[in-house]
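pinging the channel bc i need a second pair of eyes. not urgent but kinda urgent?? the chain im working w is below, pasted from the shared doc
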Amino acid sequence: MLTLAEKLCITAAFIFFMTGLLTGIWKYRCMAASANASAPVYVNVAHRSSLMYAFAALLLAYFAKLSVFPELTNTLAAVAALAFFAFAIATYIVHGVLDDTSNQLRKPHRLGKRRLPGWLTPLFMVSLIVAEVGGAAVLGTGALLAIW
């Protein structure tokens, strides 16, 4: 029987993998239509990150399976990491659709033609780091405690 954390991780892996495959089609179409056979930067980033996050989600599922921590702890850790994986992919897709930047961290931060508040991107990045690294650290530590 799978725990909720494992189910969430496997579900996210499937969604991220399918997103990677579909953004691969988008990337190909952009390349085929481009005079220099290239896609917008964030179309490439969305494609690659979706595939990488799919496999990262599977790794988290395995950590959750082995973890000695309570199911609630594992589930919260998985949700934190997976949510920010998804937020990152969504951000890359939005920038790919808008083709508004080649570097989302370049100041001033933009979304389409709109300027974002100067605090928003750094706050998002710190939150992403805490959630992804923290969630993975909890699940990985739980797994390591189980095997050693």
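so DSSP finds four helices and two strands in the chain. and The CA atoms of residues 81 and 130 lie 9 Å apart. — does that match what u expected or am i reading it wrong
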